[in-house]
Amino acid sequence: MIQVNNLCFGFTTAEIFNNLSFDIHQGEILSVIGPNGSGKSTLLRLLRGSLKPQSGEILWDHIPLEKIPTPAMARRVAVVPQSSATPFPYKVRELVAMGRYPYRKNFLSFENKSDLQAIEQALVMTDILPLAERSVTQLSGGEIQRVLLARALAQNSSVLFLDEATNHLDIDHRFELTELMLRLNREQHTTIVQISHDLDLAAAISQRILLLTEHGNIAAIGSPQEVMTAANLQQIFRVDVKVDSNPFTGAPQIVPLINNSTHQLNGLKVHLICGGGNGKTLLRRLHMAKANLTAGPLNQGDSDETTANVLNVPVVQEIPFSPFSKNTLATAGQFIAQTDVLVVTTRWWGAGNLPCLDLAEKAIQQGTAVFLLSQQQDQDYTGGKAWDKIQQLQQQGALPVRNEEHLLDELEKLTAA
Ligand SMILES: Nc1ncnc2c1ncn2[C@@H]1O[C@H](COP(=O)(O)OP(=O)(O)OP(=O)(O)O)[C@@H](O)[C@H]1O
Predict the structure, then answer these.
(1) What are the DSSP calls for 269-283, one per residue?
(2) Which InterPro entries does this UniProt record tie to the protein (predicted)?
């Protein structure tokens, strides 16, 4: 629907886009993300013709943008800008009514019935009807944002551009706006291009995401799953994140790996026997504390395996839904033989993972420090075999630890020794 071909543009201060090419599909929600100053707002201005490319072309339904008359463009695309700090003292209803200007015969003509309907509907949809007679200078940032959105909605356009429209909104109105965008998209097939720094929201609602580099190049464009990868976000935003899948929507969900570790393990070699999600938080905490980690055996697809992969932790893998084979256990034994410390975080014991406790026994015999994290008898599904073995391991020198904090304290003592 919109085609951008070899777009070049810069301000006198700096070049922003150099040969940018991509398409916007009719009826899609496309989110544009990228670092501050990467050119997202500038791109929206170019797409609607309020800035002119230095070279290249922008086509709307195969027609060059500069050939489309301004009133036609005004009916076609509505814009919710980043809210301005000091708007002119219009009443809210007057500002929303400006969304109808593209439909007026001339500046002096009165609002007709469909204008009034569209204005009323926009005020209701954005939850600002009670503010209709107030001056916009008296409104909060979030309220102004909703007024600007209402003005765009009153325009009844087939394309909506939103520039950080959820920026000032509280969680309630952020949800409402998001639902509204989805409704417009589904029911009226409105094409939505939105700039957002809320990556989770962008991933949740967009069919596609355009990720810009700090120099205005396309780092990636595609489905949220294709674009929102830890590697892409690390490369563009230089942040350490883990990308999970939202359990309700399946959309990528970003978990910042903020280093809040108060422990320092200075490269201590730690191997984790984990599984079923019992090792996830510990893997992250040990990684933050700068332990030198390995893990396994783990079935492929186990959430602990996914976490280990994100953190680039070498893992001894077993095929999904299978007991650990002799080969896999032997490889895990080789990993453990190289480590300073073995931590057993697995809680639920069954016939499939019971042999892991033999690996722990061998480690003790080899003189490796072995820690058993929060083991409990009622998590043993082997008819008592696992619990007996855990008792034996403790007699042989394995140390039980209450929780992850206790474990990290003990490991730090080992590092200092
Ligand atoms: N009118 C202007 N004159 C000169 N430089 C400008 C102008 N408008 C924007 N810029 C510069 O162009 C670059 C891109 O700005 P733009 O506002 O498009 O970035 P953005 O990706 O939307 O940023 P943010 O995430 O901070 O909103 C920035 O370096 C900015 O300083």
Answers:
(1) EEEEE--TTTTHHHH
(2) AAA+_ATPase, ABC_transporter-like_ATP-bd, ABC_transporter-like_CS, P-loop_NTPase
Whether 88 and 187 share a structural domain = yes
pLDDT value of residue 100? 87
Mean pLDDT of 342-371: 96
Nearest residue (by CA) to ligand 1, atom 8, is 42
Q: Whose CA is nearest to atom 3 of ligand 1?
A: 11
Which of 231, 255, 279 is where one domain is finished?
A: 255
Residue 113 lies in domain: 2-255
> How far away, in angstroms, is 163 Cα from ligand 1 center?
12
Tens of pLDDT, residue by residue over 42-62, are 999 999 999 999 999 999 999
Q: What is the pLDDT of residue 85?
A: 55
Please indicate, yes or no, whether residues 307 and 234 belong to a single structural domain of this protein: no
* Cα 381 to Cα 8: distance, rounded to the nearest angstrom: 65
Local structure of 83: helix, strand or coil:
coil
Asked if 349 and 223 sit in the same domain, the reply is no
The pLDDT of 399-414, averaged and rounded, is 95
Query: Do the domain assignments include residue 223?
Result: yes
- Please give the single-letter amino acid code of residue 30: L
Pocket perturbation via mutation, ligand 1, pick of 8, 11, 54 by most ligand atoms within 8 A of CB: 11
Is residue 33 within 6 Å of ligand 1 at its C-beta? no
